[in-house]
Amino acid sequence: MDPSLLEPSTGYIYPNEYFLQWELLIVLYPYITGLVAGAFILASLERVFKVKALWPVYRLALLSALAFMIVAPLPLLAHLGHPERSLEMFLTPHTTSAMAMFGFVYAWYLLVVLLLEVWFDYRREIVIWSQESKAPWRYVYKALTLGATDISDAAIKFDDRAGRLITIIGIPSAFLLHGYVGFIFGSVKANPWWSSVLMPVVFLFSAIVSGMAIVMLIYMVTSWIRWKPIDMACLNKLGEFLLYALIVDFSLELLDFIHRLYESEESIHILSQLITDRLFISLVILQVLMGALIPIFGLVAARFGRLPDEMRRMIYFLVGILIQVGIFSMRWNVVVGGQMFSKSLRGLTVYKVHLFGLEGLLFTIGLLLLPVVILYVLVKLLPPWIDGQEDGALAAQPH
Amino acid sequence: MKTGRIPQQVVVLSVIAVVVVAGFFGMRALFVPESFGKYGHYRADSVDAIRKLPIQYGGAKACAECHDEVAATKSQGFHRGVSCEVCHGPAAAHIEDPGTIKPTAPRQRELCPLCHNYSPSRPTGFPQILTAQHNPGKPCMSCHKPHDPVPPNAPKECSACHRGIWSQKLVSPHASLECSTCHEVPKEHSVDPRGFVVSKPTGNQACERCHSNAALAASAIPQVTSEHTARYLCWDCHYPHFPEGKK
What is the longest distance spanned by two Cα atoms in chain B? Predict the structure, then answer.
């Protein structure tokens, strides 16, 4: 039976507001793009700002960003249907549509920033592997060299300079990538839950938080799987930056909240009802309490407290997971929350996640697992490990 | 391994960039239709292409020329705004050749629920059923005449047509109230809903019968002073079918 019969909407809502148009896949999309932007900005901390302690996760962060980037458009394509038509967006660019222009932001970020940076960073190793590996890997690496086999000192120096330049270009690009996602929501002026100039900034900082946390998790899990010790200096530094980003992110969200409360526009009543009724668990409990406050205390304790390393690792790991839950909830609260109240400001509708189908839970979980598979392949192809090696040393021979 | 003074990497990347850019313009030349953008962000020739498509529908006027009796009946009934071909399908070919090409006539249960199955987004008062519960398996035509649809028996419950409001009220603090507590319902409303409309409260008195602090009512019922309602109508803030808007 129609769920709305069992659990009716409350108050008055317009006929076209009973069913949500943007469901779980649209929640997933800003979550994944956020991970890309965050992971890349983490990588740039090492590269541009020379935070040497983060060297062990630099390449892992780059590959993670690439893996998530490849999956980022899939929720949108699945939601819209007819993925083959997406290419038309590039052939006939619609310059006044922010959504259409995003195709170019995505292409720029994937092709010019991420792929180029990975290529320049790995080029020396790729050339060596293309000479030393056995077939068929040898041919894969040969193709990856793109014909540029010069690994003289001058060429490597050029690679390094080019990589740094790309990272510098990449930082505003990453900001643009995720700022855009917030911009899309923030510019819907008819929706008081979304319409806020702070939206792009909040999205950006939440992206940085989620990206750093996911790289921290990936670093810890891969170290455990490989039976290698975790570099605690790196993990502590990562935790420190994560804490700063989280504090900024939480403050911005709080500022947005206080501003809305103080401004107290006509929508404030329905929005407060939305928070206390429909979004209580996902916003107050998951996003604010478990996704921000507990991680902040956890990170302060783990980074600045006098704790044994084992305990720190455990806290970092739990904090990483909590942050993922919190940021996913934040995307949920924005996307779903914004469609749950009527534009009449008099009523709330209901939303139940389906299990099957394109917008269903199982498909979403599948899409969430896909970057892990892609990352596995990337890591096999381009090992990012630098166990016990100095900056710039050759990574382990893969094949 | 340098090509002049330009690093090898720059050379290969430049070649790739040129290929990509050339590919982009090549694809544009190949795939973007010539008339694209003439009028707007679409293919202008599509207007002509659509115009050339064969006409499928004949229009209700053409139907009425031969089927005048049915048209006369339908023009008096609730389906007067529904064109014949909505149910019978496109009939231009039938008009050209009435003898051999016959339009379809839906006689099972599939078609009617497209409009009459319950959906909260349909306007209130529009007759809606829960198809699974409403005489399961029986063709709609066995009780309702499609050209002059009236219920075989006058509906006894308001929920027959006002299900959306009914299901909201059912889980609200007003669940125990009859609709007639606030609305005056003419007897004929159930058979001629547009001819005999129900009344709606026009002032706060309807609510004040229970919710004024001067009213004799159970202590559990929220009561307010006359100051609370002095400048507003109650339903400016409270939706009567779901007064506090909470589950």
Answer: 100
